[in-house]
Specification:
Blueprint: H1 4-7, H2 11-25, E1 34-36, E2 60-68, H3 72-83, E3 89-92, H4 101-104, H5 116-119, H6 123-126, H7 137-150, E4 157-158, E5 163-169, E6 174-179, E7 184-192, E8 201-203, E9 214-217, H8 223-226, E10 241-245, H9 249-261, E11 264-269, E12 275-276, H10 285-289, H11 295-306, H12 320-324, H13 336-361, H14 365-370, E13 383-384, H15 388-391, E14 397-401, E15 409-410, E16 414-417, E17 420-423, E18 426-429, H16 439-443, H17 455-458, E19 477-479, H18 491-511, E20 514-519, H19 521-543, H20 558-562, H21 570-583, E21 589-593, H22 595-599
Parallel strand pairs: 2-3, 2-7, 3-4, 7-19, 9-18, 10-11, 10-18, 11-14, 12-13
Antiparallel strand pairs: 1-8, 5-6, 6-7, 15-16, 16-17, 20-21
Bound molecules: NADPH dihydro-nicotinamide-adenine-dinucleotide phosphate.
NADPH dihydro-nicotinamide-adenine-dinucleotide phosphate binds near residues 25, 113, 251, 271 and 402.
Pfam families: Pyr_redox_3 (PF13738)
Family: Belongs to the FAD-binding monooxygenase family.
Cofactor: FAD
Length: about 600
C-alpha cells in the first residue's frame, strides 16, 4: 500500500478504525430491528395530504395493461404506452396524486440530491427549466403533475386505491386484479412499478407506542403540528422540543429547517453520513438557452457513466457526485489488485476530506468528532449539504451520538440513550425505508401466477428473473425493480429504460397477436449468472461496509446475492436492454400466440 508520508494518512490505521466502527454497529437482529407501518403503527402510514373521506363506486372492467404505482416508474410506463399508440391502460396508485416519492416526501428541505437537470425527466420534451440546480420538492412534485397532464395520464388513474390481489388466470390469459375499493379488473399485462423506497420503517424500539407527545415519519410530514410549509418556516415549533431520529440522506435535509424553528432540537445519531459541499445555485438562463437539442439525454448518460465507474472524456456535471465517483474508473480487468488499491486509497483521501470538513465547520470539537463518518464513501448514500453541519453550531441544537448503538428506548416523555432520558414534545422518525426486504412485502401484494404459486413462494430461495423485469410462472407481468434489475443513483434514468422496454414488449405482443409472454428457464439462469458475477466482484467491498440499507444491515447471504440489483453499471444495463430490443426477436421470452392466430 502507498505510504503514509505521501498521503497524509495511514491506510492501515484507517482500515483498522473502519473495522472497529463497523463492529460497534453489527447486531443480530438485522432487518428485524425495524417495524413496518402496520398494525399498532398504521397511523404513521396515514396519508396526510389526500382529501379525507374520498369515495367512489367500484369498477368492473377489462384493460390491456394495468400499471401499479403512479411515481416516476408508473408515469413513464403510461407515457411510453401512450407514445406507442396504446391507450388502453389503467394506473392504480395508493396516493391521492401522481409523484410517488415527491407526493409523500413533503418534509421541509426536501430537494433532489442529484442535479435537477438530469434528475427531472423530460425537461426538453416539456420545455421546462428547473429554477435551481438542486430543485426543491414542491417544484419536482409540480413537474410530476405536469407529466401527468401532458401524457393524459390523469384520465387513466385510480388514486387512493391499493391492489389487494392479482391472480393469473390460465383460461382467459388475463390477470384478475382486485383493489381495496372493490374494483375487479381483468388485465392482459401487469406492470408493477411500486418504487424502490416506498415502505417506510420505524426502529422497533421498546416503548415506541407509549410516547405521549406527537410523532410522525418524515414521509408523512405533519404541517398541522409543525406549522409552515415545505418552503417556509415551521412556525409552530418555537415552543417545542423536537427529536429527529436518524442521520441519513433525509435527515440531512430535514435537520436545518427544524433546527431553525424548534425551541430545541436533539438529533439522535447512530452512524454519521458523509456530508460534502452542495453548492446549489439558481439556473442561469443564458447557460440554459445555450444547450443544444439532445442535451438532457447526453448529460444523463454522462452522469450515469461516471457514477458507474466508466471512463469518460468529460465530466459535464462536475458536482459532489461526480467528485465522489471520480476514482471509480480503474483498469480492473488488467490490473485488479492495483485497481482496487488505487480505488481504496482515493476513497480514504475523499473520506479524510469529508472528516476534515466537520472540523472546519463545527465549532464544538466533541460534536465535530462525533459527526465524522468512518467507512468507505459508497457504503451509504453520500450526502451533500451546505447547512447541515452548520446547524450544530446553533445553541438550540444538540447532537446525541449513540456510539453506533442507536436509541435505546422510548418513554412516555421522550427518548433514552445510554440510560439518559431526553424529554421532547415531538419525535420525527427519519429512519428510512425498506430496501432489501421481501419484494412482495414492499409492494404490498403478492401476485399469484401459474398453478396458484405466489411470487413470494416462487422466490423463497431468491429471485429468478430475466433482466429483473420478467419472471417465469408469472406471464405478462413486468416489474420495475432493483431485484435483479438496473440501479442508478439517478433513479429515473433506469426507469426511463425499463418503461421503453415494457412498451416495446407490449407493442410487439399486440401487433403480432401474441397472447402471452413469459421468460424461459434458460434465460433466467443466464441472467442470474450475470447478476452473481457482479455481486461477487463487489462482495468484499460491501462486506467491509458499516451495516445499513445497502448491505441488508450487514447480513449477506446467497438469497441476498440472488436478489441484488445488476451491479455492472447503469450504462451496461441500458446497453443490454437496448441491444435486446434492437434485435427484435424477444430472445429469452416464450411467445404464445393468441386465439386469432391459432385459428388462422
Ligand atoms: P436511511 O435508511 O438512509 O437512514 C435512516 C437513518 O435512521 C440512518 O441514519 C440510521 O442509522 C437511522 N436509524 C435507524 N434505526 C435507528 C435507531 N434505532 N437509532 C438511531 N438511528 C437509527 O433513510 P433516509 O430516509 O435518510 O434515506 C433513504 C434513501 O432515500 C436514501 O438512501 C436515498 O436513496 C433516498 N433519498 C434521496 C433524496 C434525494 O434528494 N433524491 C433525499 C433523501 C433521501 P444507521 O445509518 O446506523 O443505520
Amino acid at each position: 500500500m502507498a505510504d503514509q508520508d505521501n498521503l497524509g494518512f495511514s491506510p492501515e490505521a484507517l482500515k483498522e478504525r473502519y473495522r472497529i466502527e463497523r463492529e460497534k454497529r453489527l447486531r443480530p437482529d438485522g432487518n428485524a430491528q425495524f417495524h413496518d407501518l402496520s398494525g399498532e403503527f398504521a397511523h404513521f402510514d396515514a396519508d396526510p395530504y389526500a382529501e379525507p373521506g374520498f369515495t367512489r363506486d367500484p369498477i368492473t372492467r377489462e384493460t390491456e395493461t394495468l400499471i401499479v404505482g403512479g411515481g416516476f416508474g408508473g408515469m413513464f410506463a403510461g407515457a411510453r404506452l401512450h407514445q406507442a399508440g396504446i391507450d388502453d391502460y389503467l394506473i392504480v396508485e395508493k396516493a391521492g396524486d401522481f409523484g410517488g416519492t415527491w407526493y409523500w416526501n413533503r418534509y421541509p428541505g426536501a430537494a433532489c440530491d442529484v442535479e435537477a437537470y438530469i434528475y427531472m425527466p423530460m425537461l426538453e420534451e416539456l420545455g421546462v427549466m428547473p429554477t435551481e440546480r438542486y430543485a426543491k420538492g414542491p417544484e419536482i412534485f409540480a413537474h410530476c403533475q405536469r407529466i401527468g397532464h401532458h401524457f393524459d395520464l390523469y384520465s387513466h388513474a385510480l388514486f387512493q386505491t391499493r391492489i389487494t390481489s392479482a391472480i393469473w388466470d390460465d383460461k382467459s390469459n388475463r390477470w384478475s386484479i382486485e383493489t381495496d375499493r372493490g374494483d375487479k379488473i381483468a388485465a392482459r399485462f401487469l406492470i408493477i412499478a411500486g418504487g424502490m423506497l416506498h415502505k417506510a420503517k420505524l426502529p422497533n424500539l421498546p416503548g415506541l407506542n407509549s410516547f405521549e407527545g406527537h410523532a410522525f415519519h418524515t414521509g408523512r410530514w405533519d404541517y398541522e403540528y409543525t406549522g409552515g410549509t415545505p418552503l417556509t418556516a415551521l412556525d409552530k415549533l418555537g415552543d417545542k422540543r423536537v427529536a429527529v431520529i436518524g442521520t441519513g440522506a433525509t435527515s440531512i435535509q430535514v435537520v436545518p429547517p427544524v433546527g431553525r424553528a424548534a425551541k430545541h432540537l436533539y438529533v439522535f445519531q447512530r452512524t454519521p453520513s458523509s456530508v460534502s459541499r452542495r453548492d446549489n445555485r439558481p439556473t442561469d438562463p443564458a447557460w440554459w438557452n445555450s444547450l443544444k437539442p439532445g442535451w438532457q439525454a447526453e448529460r444523463i448518460a454522462n452522469f450515469g457513466a461516471i457514477v458507474s465507474g466508466v471512463k469518460t472524456e468529460e465530466d459535464m456535471i462536475q458536482d459532489g457526485w461526480t467528485w465522489a465517483y471520480s476514482d471509480e474508473a480503474q483498469d480492473y480487468a488488467n490490473d485488479p489488485v492495483g485497481a482496487f488499491e488505487r480505488r481504496q486509497i482515493a476513497d480514504y483521501g475523499k473520506m479524510e476530506a469529508v472528516r476534515n470538513r466537520c472540523d472546519e465547520i463545527v465549532e464544538d470539537k466533541a460534536t465535530a468528532e462525533a459527526l465524522k463518518p468512518w467507512y468507505n464513501l459508497h457504503c451509504k448514500r453520500p450526502c451533500f449539504h451546505d447547512e447541515y453541519l452548520q446547524t450544530f453550531n446553533r445553541p438550540n441544537v444538540t447532537l446525541v451520538d449513540t456510539g453506533g448503538k442507536g436509541v435505546e428506548r422510548i418513554t412516555p416523555k421522550g427518548v433514552v440513550v445510554d440510560g439518559k432520558e431526553y424529554e421532547v414534545d415531538c419525535i420525527i422518525f427519519a429512519s428510512g425505508y425498506e430496501l432489501t426486504t421481501e419484494y412482495t412485502g414492499r409492494m404490498g401484494f403478492n401476485p399469484v401466477g401459474r398453478g396458484g404459486v405466489s411470487l413470494k413462494d416462487a422466490w423463497s430461495e431468491g429471485a429468478e428473473t430475466l433482466f429483473g423485469l420478467h419472471a417465469r410462472g408469472f406471464p405478462n407481468m413486468m416489474m420495475y425493480s432493483t431485484v435483479q434489475g438496473g440501479f442508478s443513483v439517478n433513479v429515473p434514468q433506469v426507469l426511463i429504460e425499463q418503461s421503453a422496454h415494457t412498451a416495446h414488449v407490449i407493442k410487439h405482443a399486440l401487433e403480432n397477436d401474441v397472447e402471452v409472454v413469459e421468460p424461459t428457464e434458460q434465460a433466467q439462469n443466464d441472467w442470474l449468472q450475470v447478476i452473481l458475477s457482479h455481486v461477487m466482484a463487489r462482495a468484499t467491498i460491501m462486506a467491509e461496509c458499516t451495516p445499513g440499507a445497502y448491505n441488508n444491515e450487514g447480513a449477506a447471504d446467497i438469497k441476498m446475492a440472488k436478489n441484488a440489483a445488476f451491479m455492472g453499471g447503469t450504462p451496461a444495463f441500458i446497453e443490454i436492454l437496448k441491444d435486446w430490443r434492437e434485435k427484435g426477436d424477444l430472445a429469452g421470452l416464450e411467445l404464445h400466440k393468441g386465439k386469432a392466430a391459432a385459428e388462422a
